[in-house]
Amino acid sequence: MSKSIIAGGVLLLATLSVTAAQAQGFDVRNLFGQANAPAPQAAAPQSPPASSPREWSGESGASGHPLMTADAIRAAAANFPNCVAGLWPDAERRGISRATFEQATRDLTPDLRIMDLLDQQPEFTKAFWDYLDILVTDARIQRGRELLQQYKPVFDAVEKSTGVDRHVVAAIWGVESNYSTMGGDRSVVRSTATLACVGRRQAYFRDEFLAALEILEHRDMPAEDLKGSWAGAFGPTQFMPSSFKRYAVDFDGDGHRDVVNSVPDMIASTANNLKLDGWMRGQTWGYEVVVPPNFNFMLADRARSMTIADWQKLGITRAGGKPFPRLADKAYLLVPAGARGPAFLMLQNFRVIMKYNPAEAYAMAIGYLADRFRGEPPFVQPWPRDERVLSLAERYELQQHLATRGFDVGAPDGLLGSKSRSAIMQYQASVGLPSDGFASAAVLDRLRGQ
Ligand SMILES: [Ca+2]
């Protein structure tokens, strides 16, 4: 499901592409610190329910967007009934009946607490390895294996028809909702209507709101089952309404695409999502690799795709000593924790997983969990766990130092995406440091000292 980064991600070491639209589920997305969903701290144990009865703070949003000032939010809230009523012509064009529309929107009120969540920016982020620790636990590995066995006939059939690796589908299920045991409980119709009429993402959420009405119109699921994150993602694998529309399938043959209550529909729909996003049958997602001494980390660039054979010529080997199974597959090199941490060659399927949720740490957790289901061992190389993770203020400061020195970081926003990573590499090269693009405290200290 293309999830949208509603507010921009904050994953320190991950590149967050802000193009895809995904709504943070309640839990994982929170974990990834996007302004939309979940509460970052909670993944290891469990998140508290997403919709506690807390009220809107009444404060202007941190984004500074004109539609996020307290006055603008109040004015939009006052106009909410008119705004919703004004969406009827669009709904009608989509084949939604007047009865469905009225039933869904009668007495509907905006959930303004969402405005606080929309602009929320976590002050602290976790290191790349922290996400893997939290998301890929022994308990999650064990439970996933049980479910792969329990639903083996479904996984067999879905894998055969879509070509998508069952372990990856199971991993998404495990990470997005801890196998259906965690999920938001906000009404998808109410959340998307709120966001369609209030705040800075109205155009995007108008489509989501209308797509949610289409689900009701087609009787795929009743409104009371459409519950999820504040951004409108629902079900065990966190479909946005528009993603549901594109990807969901009725696999158990009861005439309804019910990704909430039917495990076969959920598994098949999630696999179909990955398939239509470009999954390469028979390929894995990536490999942990070892780079040779004095390696040129400038080559670690998502835009630099080469065959595994080409990477081998540069001295890269597979961690653990096994040979690469297919040398013609194209891959890019990812060094998520800098030169002191492990390196990875990422295949097309890693990019596909990132369409589901555009954070590298998320996608790697999915791939790693899938490997562990299969019985593969943990990663071989250690993470540099002594590295201190920079705070939001420090990341912002780092970007400003780089910009002052003429390195292109885009608009400094405290989010370290691929542009910032590239700027750090260029800065490191300019001062004779290993150019791994890693935003370490040492790099910040050096920038401060100059
Ligand atoms: Ca069904």
Q: Unreliable segments (pLDDT under 50, ≥5 consecutive)?
A: 1-27, 33-51
Q: Whole-number average pLDDT? A: 88
Q: Which radius of gyration do the C-alpha atoms yield?
A: 22 Å
Number of helices: 20
| Terminal Cα span | 45 Å
The backbone outline, from C-alpha atoms, is: globular
Name the quaternary structure: single chain
- What bound compounds does this protein have? calcium ion
- How much of the polypeptide forms β-strand, as a percent range? under 5%
User: Roughly what percent helix?
Assistant: 40-55%
The spatial strand order of the largest sheet comes to 4-6-7-3-5
Order of helices and strands: HHHHHHHHHHEHHEHHEEHEEEHHHHH
Give me the secondary-structure category. mainly alpha
Number of strands: 7
Largest sheet: 5 strands, antiparallel
Verbal overview:
By secondary structure, the chain is mainly alpha-helical. It has a domain at 392-449. Helix content is 43%, strand content 5%. It has a 5-stranded antiparallel beta sheet. The protein has a two-stranded antiparallel sheet with strand order 1-2. β6 and β7 (343-346) form a beta hairpin. Bound molecules: calcium ion. Residues 250, 252, 254, 256, 258, 262, 265 line the site of calcium ion.
